[in-house]
């Protein structure tokens, strides 16, 4: 399918239906940015939206809560509505609020109700550490010992999870399951629909950390019956460092009192009645805790407008083509340098990045950055490379592999210490 010449990469770029969107981003000259799965680049639409909300603050002051093109009072709901198509949800099932971990705390506080022998939370040993910290914390708040009540499904090979192992662990002692949609190291995409079906068959609620999939992979959370999900917006959705996060709650759970109630979770028609009896919104908005972070949310407006134009299904199609192309180049041109592709090769099980393993991964990443290729390192030996459908070109993918080949051939990485930087 793939020709390995530079000319072929250029031809792929000429045929790329999403190529026009590259001009919407601030792509630095002389840099090949392959770290959009950690922090997406700034788009001109995101910058414009931020400037617009700063201007609304300047112009309206306190009246910006109800005036302007994006009144702040309903901004979180508006962003939820705009995000819903990316995850296959009804508009009222998504809200932009908080951070990834604060949203997880909210959702566990709401949905983890230990009773009788169902006192355990099921997770996995490969998930992102912050999720585990939150789960441990929530168990302690319930007076439960995480060593006993937090179950973590083991990986058979240190890279992937087997759905059969997860399902087997859904015992009568489990009250709640929390899993990643995509494993952050290996990029493995789990079978969300099947896991949800199996959990519900056993009377267990299930939620997903979608940080490494939203904006790269279309989902159908509502159709699949997922109980809840949460994600950041600064990776594939390019909403900026520390941007507001999002959460999804299936509408069958509307009416639940959130575990962590806050003023902005109120029914908006009653919020300013200032009553001491909490009346939750009849939507995912009920799960907000505090006042929307307006300036942190602003860039997401422009980002989501861009995704509405580009279409998440076209984004996924190009992403898979780019990762397949990248893997083919790696297999053909780096075969002599002890690299291992540590992500699923089946496109149906692959997220948005390629996971390249090597004993010298940390120092190789430093050498790549010195030569203008921006990768991502993850302990202990993973180089994550994420060609982003909206702003990475096929020619850049080709060039990045040539740079990596030269680094390995010249052993240019040897001048660096094989340990991560403070931020890997």
Question: What does it look like?
Answer:
By secondary structure, the protein is of the alpha/beta class. The protein has 2 domains: 6-44 and 312-408, Aspartate Aminotransferase, domain 1; 48-309, Aspartate Aminotransferase, domain 2 (3-Layer(aba) Sandwich), CATH 3.40.640.10. Helix content is 37%, strand content 12%. It contains 13 helices and 13 strands. The strands form 3 sheets. The protein has a 7-stranded mixed sheet, sandwiched between helices. It has a 4-stranded antiparallel sheet with strand order 9-10-13-12, covered by helices on one side. Helix 1 runs antiparallel to helix 13. The longest helix is centred in the C-terminal third of the chain and has 22 residues, at 312-333. It is globular. It starts with 5 loop residues before the first helix and ends in a 14-residue tail after the last helix. The mean pLDDT is 96.
